[in-house]
Amino acid sequence: MRRIAIGTLIGLAAVSVVSAAPADAAGHPRLDKLVKLQDIRRHQHDLQVIATYNGGTRAAGEPGFEVSTQYVVKQLKKAGYQPTVQDFPFAYYKEKTPAVFERSGGPSYTYGTDFATLDYSGSGDVTATARAIDPDGAGVGSGCEPADFAGLAEGEIALVKRGGCTFSDKASNAQTAGAAAIAIYNDGIAPDRMGPVSGTAGQAWKIPIIGPSHQLGSDLVKAATSGTLTLHVKTSTINEQRIAHNVIADTERGRDDNVVVMGAHLDSVTKGPGINDNGSGTATALTVAEQISRLGDQVKNKVRFAFWGAEEEGLLGSTYYVTHLSAAQRSTIALNLNFDMLGSPNGRRGVYDGDDSEGAGTNPPAGSGAIEKVFLEYFGTRRLQTSPSTFDGRSDYGPFIDNGIPAGGLDSGAEKLKTAEEAKIYGGVAGKPYDGCYHQACDTYANNNDTILDQLADGAAHAVQVFAKSTLPVNGDHATARTPLLPQAKHTPANLVTG
Ligand code: DTR
Ligand code: ZN
Ligand code: ZN
Known about the structure:
single chain, alpha/beta, Aminopeptidase, Glucose Oxidase, domain 1, 2 domains, 13-stranded mixed beta sheet, 14 helices, binds D-tryptophan, binds zinc ion
């Protein structure tokens, strides 16, 4: 009698402990309930403070990124993990002072309106004759072929029209031909190709690379072809190798031969603190990491939390990670869940289109559709509509799918415009960007949508819980070892404007 009574008491106590944590009908804790908006916001606030006191940015190669890395390491240790920091080199670029661009004897053009500087531009102070290079883009495109520069004399400034090949190709041809600077002006073929050209020239160049608007470029070509045009270009940039980091931490529980990778990029762009992009994903992954131990032995597959560095420079951290795994190590990764931009103020509930039901021709690895289905079922159960997000590899899942690893994820939208249909579903403003502060200084703690962030974080937590339990529909793994997936066709890692 007495024994039974004690047993009952202990049983009751255990039940009440479990039910104190939000649980499903069977009494199992639910990660979507354990992951709280308030905790996510607290991490975002911490990241904002780090940015504010470190020059307003958390970009790779900057002090704000170093401190962000230390922050994540410390938070993970506090939650009981033993995180590892993976260092990798990358090509750091920074414009020290805004470039100068003017016609000899005037006028002076306005930086940011008339022209921009392309990433990886060299430094220089050049006054020289401008030469229009194949302005009609005969053949491949203006400046895309070395022969286009036949009429250029050593030390001249090459005027090249955008299009036909990458900015890098044009810069390479110009530099090889002896140009002292290159101006790649916009081609005006679409409304978004009228303004100054900003983008990346891919790798460090010796010569200044600036991007005039369509109007200015056309005017300059006219002047250069009808007479002698002398221009002054001055750029002041840093191009050097620096070290960035990935932070990786595994749950203690779970099989290490069928690992679920939950990833988010930790870095921002140089222009701002990156609290939506991607403090939101970082904070969500940290909060999931903090709460997952409460699932106890529900965690059958190890969960690996990955905080990627230098995403903004072209998915560099995730690419480094995936390409530095041996084939055997790669085959232990069941899938990748990626979270990048979860709180866009004018956002939507975007689910990566892992089965390419939208017909974008993305050719996703098998299993990616099953991941998408888990998200769709979750939001469906909650009667929350979602929108397909093109599975184009424009975030850190790109290197995973390029290597045949199934992936999925959520996002609330970046620079693209909300449609009228989406405004009906999600509220907000049609015709305005999902995130009007995308890649800008105003991507601060205030740049957020609490409702969408909360719901997408719930979806993220749910998917982690589901796959920690079993990845059967994704990779056929039902407690037995799996065979590695075949590599898939290469996806463009393009998170960058390259041409
Ligand atoms: N990779 C993001 C921006 C981005 C653009 N499209 C998507 C789709 C899904 C996630 C993210 C994105 C950036 O870091 O800039
Ligand atoms: Zn970004
Ligand atoms: Zn991002």
